[in-house]
Structure formats: structure tokens, C-alpha cells
Amino acid sequence: MRFFLVFLAFVPALLARPFTVAAYNVENLFDVDGIAVYDEYQPSAYTPAHLRTKLDHIAQVVARIGDAGRGPDIILFAEIEVDRTPESRVDDQAAFLRRYAGTTFEKMLTAPLTPEEAGLPAEAWLLKAFADRGLTGYTAIAGSDSPATNHEDGHPRAIKCVVFTRFPVKAVRQHPIPNARNILEILLDVDGCPLTVFANHWKSGAGDPATEKIRLADARVLRSRLDEILQADPHADIVIGGDFNSQYNQKQRYPAMKETGLNDVLHSQGNVRAIHGAQHDLYNLWFELPADQRGSDVYHGEWGTLIQLIVSRGLYDYRGVQYVDHSFGVAKFAGLNMAADGTPRRWTFDGPAGDGCSDHFPVYARFVTVADNAPGRWLTLSRPADGTAPAEAPRVAYATIDLGKTALTAAQIPAGANLRDGSFNGKLFRVESRAIAGPRLAVTFQGGDYDVYVPDPALREQLRAAWRDGASVRFYGELGQYRGRWQFVVRDASWVK
To answer: Are 83 and 169 in contact (CB under 8 A)?
Structure first.
């Protein structure tokens, strides 16, 4: 079977009901063909059981976005593996799903895989997992990043963008980017109205001026294509999304960068009324949220906005597809993709089948079609954003967590439970124990030895002085693993008693 890049899937018109668009970085969804660029996804570390867990958790997250249990109608995925066994791609997705309708992805990934099944690309497995969970009607369009060629810097192409859509696909264009993933452009038919979506995954390293040069190239390619579309129709309906590896306020957050790809070249901005004029044609939906709630990923205790949805002026007029005012949100669900401290519950290989979801929360927005055919009339706004963007990022409010309600005590841990099977990762514990002698901060808890990592250097040194060999210690810690060592992470001074 061969997995196609373009397939015209015709589904019934959705009768002008609201629909949802989401952008989701799934943190390296890899297949199990035994060939992987990244070391952690080699067969010795990444098994069919790991893929089974990742698929299950992604499907659970997606099912909670948009209409209950149905999932978004358009999903812009980032970090899906470039298939390194293209001979096993699937040409006819509907036939593929019919062929395996009598089984489930869990059963397939529990029993020994046939060579054909082992070679299935990650997006085919995701389609199957979605279908098994009732998330049906999707066509998958994959980036054409070739495993046969490396990036310009010599690194192999490992991951790509993929779009899942329930709407008919009218055209697909691929835009190669130096040292980054192809930008995927898809023209959709939404209730007879054209909608163009762009799936992006720009070069990583948001705060690095060296990698910003590559993101400038990403932005120039995308901006050039947007100019072509908007020159032909200034009110064209366009949704731009994905992982930009840039902050929505990249220019303000990193003032040392003389030019930024997102703000200076692409011209993403936050004054929604400005798109009524000729100077600005894009609006970044992050500006709909209060500044202290803008965040979908965390780095060194600061919230980031690498995942974004950006819309064109045409989505605010009364023709074709229209944005639903203030429908933008961050999809975070306690106990599923959100850890006890409110941050993303990222993927981990711990335990026999791994656990967690992704280091990014998905973002989403709602849209509807309108029949007014009045591109000169603008959507009434309830709380129009003026483009205000603070330079400082909001920090994770670790000190405000109700530790008494959130953290597990030794008495609450079920008898015989294995804290290292992966199911407890990201959970908070109240640790009462004794320090272990040695250069590391470490304790014994529930019969095992655990490092204690403290990101704050001043607090770390304070604990080194207080926790003499064998000293009694009491603290709250987030369970995790780093380079094969189990640890409790103390995120804030308020977590130490």
C-alpha cells in the first residue's frame, strides 16, 4: 500500500454549522518500521506499545476539542515522522480503513506486526486510531519532505507537517524551506467557500538570533505566497497555523533581534481593527487572551506561544468563511495532557509503554460560513484587541498551586504501586524522608532512591546547606525522569517545608 500526498476526499457540505480548526505539535509521533533518525525512536527504546500509548492519548486530546467527541474539522499537525519506508505508504485511505475495520489499532500494536503493518507511516496509524475512537471523515495530507535528501545543514529530514481535514481538498502546494520543514498549503472547499490553510513548523530556537535567520527564510517564503493570494483577492479567507518556534510577541520579547520572521517579515500583529485597512492583512489570535494567559508551552518556567493560529482580514468580513469572535483557546485537560502543575504533560518513554502526551498544548478556534457576500462589512467585535504585547513572558504560577489538594502523600499511593511505571509521571508528591549522603541532592522514597532537582540555583544551594547527610526533609516534588535517573523536581521555594 502507498500513502498518498494528495487525495480528493468529497464529503457532504457541513450546512454552515460552526467548525473548528486546531494546531497541535504532537512531540514526535513516529512509526514502528525500525528506521528512525532520532536515537530515542530506535527499536530498542521505542516499541509498538509506545506508539499505542501515543496514539491513544493524542486521540483522547483531539476528541475533546471542538464539538464533543467529534474533534476539530481541520487539524494542523507538527512533528509527525517523515516516512523512511515509502514503499509501505497507503494510496487509498478509505480502503485502508475498511481493510482494518475488523480490528483496532491497540490489537494491531499488541500482536506481532506483519512487515506491511510495521511499515505503515505515522499518519496512517493516526487515521486508524482516530477512526477507532469515532473521529471519522478525515483525509490526511502529508508534507512531501523527502527522506532521501538532507536539510541544507546536512541533518536528515526527520519530521513533517500533516493536515487532517473533513472538507474537500481542491489543491495542495508544498513550499520547501531551507533547514526547516516544508510549509504545506491546502485549498479547501468549506460549504462551497474557498479556505486556504497553511501548516507550518519553523526552525527551532525562538530566542536564538542565529536560528532566527532561518525563521526569516520561512517567513519570506510564506509572505511571498500570501502576497500572491491577497493581490488576487484582498479578502481571501486564510488560516495560518502550526509551530512557528517564535513567540507571538517575538519582536518585543527578544529586542536584540533587529528583524524577526514572525513580526517583521510575515507581519503577524495584534490590532484586530488594523486589518480593516490596507497596511495590515493578518491578525494573531493569541491577542484575544489576557496577556497572563498567553501560553501553550513552557521553557525554564516561562510560558511560550510557539503554537499559533493567524487569520487573514477576510475572516472578519461577511463573505465566505468567518471567524467566530473570541473563540480562540488553549486545549488543556487535567490528568490527560496537563500535569498537576498546570504545564503540558509531555511525552515520556518511562515504563513498558511510555506515558504523557506532548510538550505543547494544542490551540484552536471556531469558524462559520456566511452567505451575505459583503466583504466591505466587518464583524462586530466584543472586546477588540489593540495589539498590546508585553515584553516579558508570564511565568508558571507554581506558588499558587493548592499543594494540599494536588499532591499525593505516601498514604495515598496504592499498595504495590510502581512509581516508575510511567503512570505517575508529572504528578506532585509530598515527600517526607531523609537526605542521601553524597554530592547530589537525593532522597529515599517508597523504597527507591530519587534525585531532587531544583531549577532555581539559589534555592538549590540553600537546600544543599540544609540537607546534611541523613537530615530529615519535607518537600513537594514533581516526579519525572532525566537521562535515565528518576527525580523529584522542586519548582518553587513554596514547595519546601
So the answer is: no
Task: Give residue-wise pLDDT tens across range 339-380.
Answer: 999 999 999 888 889 999 999 999 999 999 999 999 989 999
Question: Which percentage of the chain shows pLDDT scores above 70?
Answer: 97
Q: Are strands 302-304 and 307-312 parallel, antiparallel or unpaired?
A: unpaired
Q: Cα separation of 368 and 320, whole Å?
A: 8
pLDDT tens digits for range 296-346: 999 989 999 999 999 999 999 999 999 999 999 999 999 899 999 999 999
**Cell digits for 81?**
515522522
All 3 cell numbers of residue 367? 469558524
The grid cell for 219 is: 517567513
Residue 365 neighbours by CB distance under 10 Å:
23
Q: What angle, rounded to 10 degrees, do the helices at 122-132 and 48-63 form?
A: 50
SS3 breakdown of the chain: % helix, strand, coil, rounded to 5? 25, 30, 45
DSSP state of 67: S
* Residue 192 CB coordination number (10 Å): 11
What cell was used for 223? 509572505
Q: For each of the domains in the chain, give its residue range(s) and CATH number, in order of start.
A: 19-378 (3.60.10.10), 398-495 (2.40.50.330)
Q: Hey, is 400 helix, strand or coil?
A: helix
